[in-house]
Write a structure and sequence with these properties.
The complex is a heterodimer of chains A (117) and B (112). Chain A has 117 residues and is an all-beta fold. Helix content of chain A is 0%, strand content 49%. Chain A is built from no helices and eleven strands. In chain A, strand 5 and strand 6 form a beta hairpin. Chain A is globular. Helices cover 0% and strands 54% of the residues of chain B. Chain B has strands spanning 3-5, 10-14, 19-21, 24-26, 33-38, 44-50, 56-58, 64-68, 73-78, 87-95, 99-102, 106-111. In chain B, the strands form three sheets. In chain B, strands 2, 5, 6, 10, 11 and 12 form a six-stranded mixed beta sheet that branches. A four-stranded antiparallel beta sheet of chain B has the order 3-9-8-7, with no helix packed on it. In chain B, a hairpin with a 5-residue loop joins strand 5 (33-38) and strand 6 (44-50). Classes of the chains: A mainly beta (117), B mainly beta (112). Chain A binds chain B through residues 4, 31, 33, 35, 41-45, 48, 55-56, 58, 91, 100-111, and chain B through 30, 32, 34, 36, 42-46, 49, 51, 90, 92, 94, 96-105.
């Protein structure tokens, strides 16, 4: 069964550094998402991406964040200047996109644990 | 405001006990509802989903959930849990076109 994959599984960085988290969505999926889960808290939506542009973003997704689909398979989340409070598990998800308004189901990757020191 | 509430944060059961995890949502539009499970060290896996039709939906691994519109609820049930069901369970509602709103999760521990 096809799966969403993410690399690395764990990233440790110094505050102020840039990080890029990578995701390979399921191959025939058209919609891509990033979520984050701060330890002990709920999973929070960050951004959705379709047709090479952001379709929706949350208030968390400020100017420090950006997303990109640099090629036909990868989907990346960049944090320009990391802060301590960016430490979290970051989940990538993808969906087919046949009917995004109704029946689309999102499939999640295993996550990247980001630790900002 | 859109939200999902899971009232049970930690649940401990013995094997073969019955399980019911509560989920209440607040969302004004058409609801699409999901339960995901996260086993230790693993990613979120879809257990079941409700879009329309029969309000009693059956998922994988013997789980089911009932959508009760009048109560804004989508509770997860399993008649007899196993040790391997130890995991964290998340209820989610699809809010709008793209984003999911998740509950805070319920950690289930099943004692062998």
């Amino acid at each position: 069964e096809p799966e969403v994959t993410q690399t690395p599984s764990h990233q440790v960085t110094q505050m102020g550094q840039e990080v890029i988290l990578r995701c390979v969505p399921i191959s025939n999926h058209l919609y891509f998402y990033w979520y984050r889960q701060i330890l002990g808290q709920k999973v929070e939506f960050l951004v959705s991406f379709y047709n090479n542009e952001i379709s929706e973003k949350s208030e968390i997704f400020d100017d420090q964040f950006s997303v990109e689909r640099p090629d036909g398979s990868n989907f990346t989340l960049k944090i320009r200047s990391t802060k301590l409070e960016d430490s979290a598990m970051y989940f990538c998800a993808s969906s087919e996109g046949q009917n995004p308004r109704r029946t689309d189901t999102q499939y999640f990757g295993p996550g990247t644990r980001l630790t900002v020191l | 405001a859109q939200s999902v509430s899971q009232h049970n944060h930690h649940v401990i059961l013995s094997e073969a006990a019955s399980l019911e995890l509560g989920c209440n949502y607040s969302y004004g539009g058409t609801v699409n509802l999901f339960w995901y499970v996260q086993y230790p060290g693993q990613h979120l896996q879809l257990l079941l989903k409700y879009f329309s039709g029969d309000p009693l939906v059956k998922g994988i691994k013997g789980f089911e959930a009932e959508f009760i519109k009048s109560k804004f609820s989508f509770n997860l049930r399993k008649p007899s849990v196993q040790w391997s069901d130890t995991a964290e369970y998340f209820c989610a509602v699809k809010a709008g076109t793209y984003k999911y709103i998740f509950g805070t999760g319920t950690r289930l521990k099943v004692l062998a």
